[in-house]
Specification:
This protein is mainly beta. Helices cover 13% and strands 47% of the residues.
Amino acid sequence: MLSAIMITLVVSSAQVAVSFHDNESLVEPDRDPRYQLYLQTVVRDTEGQLLSVSEETIAWILMPALPDGVQIPGLVDRMIDNNMVAEKEVIIIDNVKYDKLQWKTDVIIDNERLTSLGAAKVGMFSGAIWKFCGDFKQEYGNLCIPLFEGRTPQIHITEGDVITNQWTVLRPMN
């Protein structure tokens, strides 16, 4: 009888893990030591109450490529040099000068992002992929290309939660 109760409790309390990753994350990451990439994830409920804060200190750059497989070398450098995402600033850490780029993105959790288990609508979030969007000339047009990926510890989410991802890129200056 105790076994039946335990099994019922375990099965009925299971939650669906929702991944915001596509197969794009299977692209070989760029472990270029010139860059340091960080991801901080903050989750707040519908009333704005803080639910979770987590960080990934070993996020990585994905090899940017166009739909036909043509790679785009130097996209991160161009992004930093041309302030394409955010204004860069110069900072000094341990006597080393860095170009620093930092920006935030928000995701509001809705029905489409969750898989339903009966009446409960809960899931888990475990990282993010940031896509660079731009006009890639007439041949390709406007595209969004996966560029950064970071994984965080699993975070419980529900409909109405807001996930704020803060990305930070550091590039040592010569």
